[in-house]
Amino acid sequence: MERPGGRTARVRASVLRAAGDALAERGFVNLDLGDLARRAEVGRTTVYRRWGTVTAVLTDLLLEMAVESVPRADTGSLEGDLRVNARLVVKTLTDQRQGPLFKAVLGAATSDDDAAAALTRFYLTRIREWAPCVTDAEARGEIPPGTDAEEVVRAVSAPLYYRFVTGTGELDDAVADRAVAAAVAAAKAGVFSRANGAR
Amino acid sequence: MERPGGRTARVRASVLRAAGDALAERGFVNLDLGDLARRAEVGRTTVYRRWGTVTAVLTDLLLEMAVESVPRADTGSLEGDLRVNARLVVKTLTDQRQGPLFKAVLGAATSDDDAAAALTRFYLTRIREWAPCVTDAEARGEIPPGTDAEEVVRAVSAPLYYRFVTGTGELDDAVADRAVAAAVAAAKAGVFSRANGAR
């Protein structure tokens, strides 16, 4: 009998860590199940039986990343909460391991439909985790009633990912804070009102 | 002697069209110079001699796309100009050929440094083409003096590319117009002021 957190969980943790390392180092195109088994010091048969494809490993990794990711902030102000999120995104995308890892995952999603679906689920989880910062701000009267909370959260991440993907600008805390200021100004102006067609 | 617009130009046009088709159909990973030569009905030797690598073809394609791309609008208002741009981005990213093509190019940039550099040059060209819409609006007094024009243009594209890359929302004219409204509201609030650290 196997207890929770036992061998199966350890094998998964090892393989997902190896997958993250391999993605960061060599990208999705070069991901190989046999290589992951070696890196994770896990039997090839186990890896092939449990995941079967590199896309399945990637999907599982994104699921784990969503579960492990930082919960929403609660600083008492919309700008404060969103700054925590924006700075976290910048920290992640500029991190020596996480930056290349995200680049690999975004790259995989451009060519593999299952990877794209897993990536979308990851971002929807993140967006929904942080949306209550916006609904709380609406309840406090900081922004107009009927603001689309998810759209505000997306608006904060968008300029950061745009820079990350197109390489058309630096990524630092000043950029993060400006992304927040822009999203908050637009939210206060009613741009993200659901009546305005936001969804 | 070869005249401009002669055989060399025709060969380049054929190969770049074939590259665009192949990228849209099968992505960057499956791009192959021999296949491009066949598709373009051009000799393999010519293609290998002129470009040498698939990345060189991609770089040339992005250069051509920048040259051929739509010039800035001049509607008389910032919101009007930026709407033309945002709707153009949506039209491109949702186009049956251009959408997969852009996905392939963005994917290539995640794994190939030369492709990434070419992609950055493409977007910088586009951003700089449209920036005068913002400086004109500043001259008309629509937005505060000292607004970072390129940052405003980026702010319009960012939510559209974020949706395109993460798959976390539709892309249509309503989304395009909302991206513009958000950028204009933030610009009017002084968020993109250079004094505010924009660059």
Topology:
Two copies of one chain form a homodimer.
Chain A: H1 7-26, H2 33-40, H3 44-50, H4 54-68, H5 78-94, H6 98-111, H7 113-139, H8 149-166, H9 173-188
Helix pairs in contact in A: 1-2, 1-4, 1-6, 2-3, 4-7, 5-7, 5-8, 5-9, 6-7, 7-8, 8-9
Explain what you see.
Two copies of one chain form a homodimer. By secondary structure, chain A is an all-alpha fold. Chain A folds into two domains: 6-65, Arc Repressor Mutant, subunit A (Orthogonal Bundle); 70-196, Tetracycline Repressor, domain 2 (Orthogonal Bundle), CATH 1.10.357.10. Chain A is 71% helix and 0% strand. Chain A is elongated and about 55 Å long. The termini of chain A are far apart. The relative contact order of chain A is 0.12. Chains A and B meet through helix 6, helix 7, helix 8 and helix 9 of A and helix 6, helix 7, helix 8 and helix 9 of B.
